[in-house]
Specification:
- This protein has 11 helices and 37 strands.
- By secondary structure, it is an alpha+beta fold.
- Helix 3 packs antiparallel against helix 11 and helix 4 packs parallel to helix 7.
- The radius of gyration is 29 Å and the shape is elongated.
- The N terminus is likely disordered.
Length: 677
């Protein structure tokens, strides 16, 4: 009989705190109950920057300087996600992150007759030839996954999906902590990569144990969850600050006492060479060693992936985790689907509504409006969620939302109107209309400003006060002092550089030509004539009963200052219905100034002849199916907006939400439902 030797491979990632790191700390709470959310996943996507919240919901995470432009994600099983830009956090101010509870998944199963178990099957890898300990002493959330598929030779021919989950087991090779914790997750197989994909269950099942070695069992029978095909069983190690400190101290002490056991090895796996710092031995180190086997036979039969943090990239590994899942079939079971969604069937309206509801459920978006028009007729409208979550005030068709940078598309019609009246020359220097604006090193035209070719800066992403301002401006011309004296970033016309501040200058151009306040001009000459009766400036000093509340990335209500400094470029309020009217005006309007509308949708070009994909206040291009589309989107830390016009399909779609989450909503998927591919 061949003797199997136990080799312990230790790989510890010591992330040292370097200069320039942002320390973010706070608490994760259930939005509905205000109770802590323990072990919430926190991190930056596709990075090893991540951690878990403590049992009391508190957390602390170090974010290196190079990730300042990224987004920190917060999620937990059974809750929607929150995405907060790193630049939103202030190191001296702890934050509270409110996670919304998800609705009950539609595939929840209830068994209406007594269950009778048929044969149980154990799937997975029971063998092990050693253990692996991999801990990051700065971050947390490491997971190891095993692909579960019925390849085992002992399975009978009668094995077929679906099957029901009974239990899972993870082999603990050696534990040197007083206690340890693992959370089990079940993940779908990603169709494109074959890696672990979305979570199949939303329950957080954590098992704590003080065992020294053996099989750690997870009881899954109460889930009554049917599995219809191969899936991953994933074990997420939960280590708190004390665990990480003990592991780091023990590691350093061991290296001091046994320097000869530290090896720098080059290993090859799937054609790629990796340099890894390893310890041969180290069985007495603090930590929990997971059983693995790394034989060629195991690698041929099984597949394992590892990620270092909650949102890190999955990496296929040679060491196959020793873990199993027990499943069973039921005889005479009569599973019944949970209650159906509000809108059923394959009609575009039903599919679109489900997309919206799923998005709200996954992201925790409080409220949204969406409107679809085909051939100048409203085909579908939905007002979902809450305009005021605290008071449970529902979104209606007249709820006012911030439209952010879609304000540029609105302002573009005023420019078009002034051009048609021969009051505005797009290629004349802006000082012709705003004499007070400082002359720069190079002349700047209205056309360049409207196409983001003027060289003006945008918000300083490292300085939140550049976006959240408290000063109130009576008109667009007065607001120019926010950026008027700044140096140009490049010679006008040479490159595309998005700038909301530039569009504020266009508000002043409109004032200079008309002699009227920007908001007054827009109301009298555009909004009222076009029937946009729910569009106005977001003047926070005026009471507007239908105005939505707005919620920042943490889930808190947040006004984000006074928006009077940027009405023309990003400070208007409107509704999805009004935005659709705007789109239909461009498609069907008879107003004289619309004879010049092609200038809005003609891509500008840089000095070297490259198209920018942006006209005057509109992006222009094609969607993934080749359909022409004029569009704009906008978002702030507390709201988001989209407006799409498909000129060849006579289709207009508008979307508004009262949090930044909606920026990630793919409105083109709605378009696909309403036009012929």
């Amino acid at each position: 009989m061949k003797k199997i030797t136990s080799i312990v491979v230790l790989h510890i990632l010591l992330s040292t705190a370097g200069f320039g790191q942002l320390i973010i700390q706070g608490t994760v709470l259930n939005r509905a109950t205000r109770q802590p959310v323990p072990y919430a996943n926190i991190g930056i996507v596709h990075s090893n920057i991540g951690t878990l919240s403590n049992p009391d919901g508190s957390f602390l995470i170090l974010v290196p300087e190079k990730f300042r432009a990224d987004t920190l994600l917060f999620s937990a099983l059974g809750f929607g996600r929150k995405a907060v830009p790193v630049r939103f956090f202030r190191p001296e101010k702890p934050v509270v992150i409110f996670l919304p509870e998800r609705a009950i998944p539609l595939n929840t199963i209830t068994v209406t007759v007594k269950k009778k178990r048929n044969q149980a099957f154990e799937l997975g890898n029971r063998t092990f030839r050693g253990g692996v300990l991999e801990n990051d002493t700065t971050y947390a959330g490491r997971s190891i996954a095993l692909l579960i598929e019925p390849k085992e030779p002992h399975l009978k021919k009668g094995f077929t999906f679906p099957v029901y989950l009974e239990k899972a087991n993870l082999r603990i090779f050696r534990n040197n902590l007083k206690s340890f914790r693992f959370r089990i997750r079940l993940n779908a197989v990603d169709r494109l990569t074959g890696q672990p994909g979305e979570d199949l269950i939303q329950q957080s099942i954590v098992v704590e144990s003080a065992m020294k070695n053996g099989w750690l069992e997870f009881d899954l029978s109460a889930l009554n969850y049917p599995v219809s095909g191969p899936f991953y069983v994933t074990f997420e190690q939960i280590v708190d600050l004390q665990d990480r400190t003990d592991i780091a101290d023990g590691y350093r002490k061991y290296i001091q006492e046994h320097p000869e056991k530290l090896k720098i090895d080059t290993v090859e796996f799937e054609g790629k060479k990796e340099v890894r710092q390893m310890l041969r031995g180290g069985i007495d180190l603090p930590g929990t060693f997971i059983g693995i086997v790394d034989t060629p036979a195991a690698a041929e039969r099984y597949t394992s992936y590892v990620r270092e943090t909650s949102f890190g990239e999955w990496k296929k590994v040679r060491g196959i985790v020793s873990a199993t899942v027990t499943v069973s079939t039921y005889l005479d079971a009569n599973p019944k689907q949970a209650p159906e969604a509000p809108c059923q069937g394959n009609r575009p309206e039903c599919l679109a509504e489900q997309l919206c509801r799923d998005f709200m459920d996954n992201t925790g978006t409080n409220g949204m409006q969406i409107c679809v028009s085909v051939n100048n007729q409203i085909k579908w409208f939905a007002a979902l969620g809450y305009a005021d979550w605290e008071n449970k005030s529902a979104v209606t068709d007249s709820t006012l939302f911030r439209i952010n940078s879609v304000s540029k598309s609105m302002t573009s019609l005023a420019l078009l109107q002034l051009v048609s009246e021969r009051k505005l020359d797009l290629d004349a220097p802006v000082q012709n209309y705003v004499p007070s604006f400082p002359v720069k090193k190079y002349p700047i035209t209205t056309r360049q400003v409207a196409g983001h070719l003027a060289g003006f800066r945008d918000y300083n992403e490292t300085d939140l006060s550049d976006f959240i301002r408290t000063e109130h401006f009576e008109n667009a011309t007065a607001a120019l002092r926010v950026f008027a004296n700044d140096t140009l970033l490049f010679k006008p016309g040479t490159k595309f550089g998005y700038s909301t501040f530039g569009w504020n200058l266009l508000g002043a151009v409109i004032e200079g030509i008309s002699g009227e306040n920007y908001l007054d001009y827009m109301a009298k000459n555009l909004w009222k004539p076009l029937g946009l009766f729910h569009t106005c400036g977001d003047d926070i000093h005026k009471t507007r009963p239908n105005r939505s509340k707005f919620y920042d990335g943490t889930g808190e209500e947040n006004e984000l200052g006074d928006w009077s400094y940027k009405y023309a470029g990003g400070g208007l309020l409107s509704t999805a219905n009004d935005l659709v009217k705007l789109g239909n005006t461009l498609l069907y309007g008879k107003e004289p100034f619309l004879t010049h509308k092609t200038v809005l949708f003609t891509s500008q070009v840089t000095a070297d002849g490259k198209e920018t994909g942006y006209g005057l206040g509109w992006y222009v291009g094609k969607d993934k199916n080749g359909h022409r589309v004029w569009h704009h989107a906008g978002d702030s830390f507390s709201s988001s907006s989209h407006l799409l016009v498909y000129p060849d399909d006579n289709l207009v779609i508008a979307f508004l939400a009262n949090s930044q989450d909606g920026a990630a909503f793919d409105l083109q998927r709605i378009g696909e439902l309403f036009y012929k591919k």
